[in-house]
């Protein structure tokens, strides 16, 4: 067992998990002069995968191949001042609305914003690689791949990792341990042992599987998208749905969300094709039967869960961020955006508290208590927003798979759209607040509830006036 003690000099932060959130946090810490050690359980995703490193390839892991990046994520990238937001936007495909595919294959566009705001489809691996490259450019950062966190002794500020290549154990001491190790976080489990953590975890009864619509190959050898590239395509089927996001190689990654039993009912290729002919008749020829069968029967089936916990920190010794702190179902496209915003919020609080990257190395790195106070404030500020977006994400599944086809829902969206155009500061649709602004998530819900109430009153007033008017006209006619 190797032991790396803390030494006098810059504060040392040990970040667990080099996913998107951990990598971005590493950049923020490095920019403020901390000594950063970033530990990642998987091999370096930038190196070609060997048979033993196959899980390094995100396409083979149980995560989406692409994801929607919106304002909150872009803002946190922008705050680095490294132009990361612009670089990543160069690799993104803007999606200005939902394209609803009905059972007859008819497509209807529902734009996200009357002012033309878009969410952006980005390649998960490409984004992570960009962040890792930026992290590595700092002289005060070291990335340790193939190192999986095993346990922490938080009071001694120690974390023990297993080097997965050699099987050796390594214990490191750091002034602060940051857990960015995703939904099944080991850091969160360690935090639970030291704090009175409230914790809930909920698996939904639906799983997901990724499928592909390949590019269209023209006769002249050129290729094209098979559907409108600037939309997030949805096939809402009430109790289940399929969505598709565009990729730079002109393919679409489709995600089929369905109850587990429904997945299990489909056991043969004939059953699968019949299912698609019934529910996704326009998607079937775009995917091709052979490709569909290969994807459906070989791609892993992912499960979806929501995790809420409180607090996110322990004294000045540990804090958890991203999915490690709040895992949400993917139906608002906010998981990573929220994780990126965690980093921005955390550092705005650390900066306000003047937390500096200095330590005496005497094991008392937080003599003024600045870091402990800042982390406590972070938990309080961020928890209500994380809970709010976890709840919104859950509700949005019903909106996407069912409500988007309801007349009442569409009427409300239309009225809200007009009111937003006329009074952009007073009436703001919920989707706009969540995806195109940095309004704290919990405040977005409060404002939406207020708007719903006022729209209800307005609706009532219009109905009363209409009925009264009609009654007057009828009375006049009788006279
Ligand atoms: P992760 O991406 O899970 O990264 C955690 C890292 O920690 C991993 O690299 C892992 O290998 C490493 N790790 C784990 N355990 C250890 C350990 N013990 N030691 C060391 N390292 C460890 N979000 C959006 O914003 N928009 C979307 O459109 C979107 N779509 C999604 C679609 C699907 C189907 C799913 C499942 C999620 C989607 N999300 C989306 C959510 C998004 O994927 C997550 O919120 C995001 O990946 C969280 O980033 P993270 O860095 O916190 O965690």
From TrEMBL:
Record-annotated FAD-binding domain positions: 12-350
Compartments, as annotated in UniProt: Mitochondrion outer membrane
Residue ranges of coiled coil: none
GO MF annotations in UniProt: FAD binding; kynurenine 3-monooxygenase activity
KW tRNA-binding (keyword) present: no
Entry annotated with the keyword 4Fe-4S: no
InterPro entries (alphabetical): FAD-bd, FAD/NAD-bd_sf, Kynurenine_monooxygenase
Gene3D superfamilies: FAD/NAD(P)-binding domain
EC category: oxidoreductase
Pfam family, one: FAD_binding_3
Recorded GO CC terms: mitochondrial outer membrane
The protein, known as: Kynurenine 3-monooxygenase
Pathway linked to the protein: Cofactor biosynthesis; NAD(+) biosynthesis; quinolinate from L-kynurenine: step 1/3
Taxonomic lineage: Eukaryota, Fungi, Fungi incertae sedis, Zoopagomycota, Kickxellomycotina
Obligatory cofactor(s): FAD
Function description: Catalyzes the hydroxylation of L-kynurenine (L-Kyn) to form 3-hydroxy-L-kynurenine (L-3OHKyn). Required for synthesis of quinolinic acid.
């Amino acid at each position: 067992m190797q032991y790396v003690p803390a030494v006098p000099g810059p504060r040392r932060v040990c970040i667990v998990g080099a996913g998107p959130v951990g990598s971005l946090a590493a950049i923020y810490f490095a920019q403020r002069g901390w000594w950063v050690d970033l530990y990642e359980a998987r091999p370096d995703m930038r190196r070609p995968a060997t048979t033993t490193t196959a899980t390094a390839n995100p396409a083979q892991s149980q995560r989406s191949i692409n994801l929607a990046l919106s304002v909150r994520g872009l803002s946190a990238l922008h705050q680095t001042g490294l132009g990361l937001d612009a670089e990543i936007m160069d690799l993104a495909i803007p999606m200005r609305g939902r394209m609803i595919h009905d059972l007859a294959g008819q497509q209807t566009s529902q734009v996200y914003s009357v002012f033309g705001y878009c969410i952006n489809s980005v390649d998960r691996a490409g984004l992570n690689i960009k962040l890792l490259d930026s992290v590595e450019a700092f002289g005060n950062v070291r990335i340790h791949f193939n190192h999986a966190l095993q346990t922490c002794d938080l009071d001694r500020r120690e974390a023990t990792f297993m080097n997965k290549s050699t099987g050796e154990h390594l214990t490191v001491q750091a002034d602060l341990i940051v857990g960015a190790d995703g939904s099944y976080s080991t850091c969160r489990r360690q935090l639970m042992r030291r704090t009175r953590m409230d914790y809930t975890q909920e698996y939904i009864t639906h799983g997901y599987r990724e499928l592909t619509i390949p590019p269209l190959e023209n006769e002249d050898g050129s290729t094209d998208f098979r559907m409108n590239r600037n939309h997030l395509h949805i096939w809402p089927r009430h109790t289940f749905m399929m969505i598709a996001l565009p990729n730079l190689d002109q393919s679409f990654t489709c995600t089929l969300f369905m109850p587990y039993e429904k997945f299990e009912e489909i056991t043969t290729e004939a059953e699968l094709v019949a299912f698609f002919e019934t529910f996704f008749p326009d998607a079937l020829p775009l995917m091709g039967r052979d490709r569909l069968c290969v994807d459906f029967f070989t791609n892993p089936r992912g499960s979806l869960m929501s995790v809420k916990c409180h607090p996110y920190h322990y004294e000045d010794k540990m804090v958890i961020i991203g999915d490690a702190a709040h895992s949400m179902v993917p139906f608002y496209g906010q998981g990573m955006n929220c994780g990126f915003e965690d980093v921005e919020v955390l550092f705005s609080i650390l900066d306000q508290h003047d937390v500096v990257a200095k330590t005496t190395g005497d094991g008392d790195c937080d003599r003024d208590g600045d870091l402990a106070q800042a982390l406590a404030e972070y938990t309080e500020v961020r928890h209500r927003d994380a809970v709010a977006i976890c709840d919104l994400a859950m509700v949005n599944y019903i909106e996407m798979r069912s409500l988007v086809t309801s007349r009442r829902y569409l009427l409300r969206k239309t009225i809200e759209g007009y009111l937003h155009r006329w009074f952009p500061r007073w009436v703001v649709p919920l989707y706009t607040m969540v995806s195109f602004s940095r309004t704290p998530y919990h405040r977005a819900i409060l404002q939406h509830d207020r708007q719903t109430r006022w729209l209800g009153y307005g609706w009532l007033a219009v109905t009363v006036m209409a009925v009264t008017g009609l009654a007057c006209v009828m009375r006049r006619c009788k006279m």
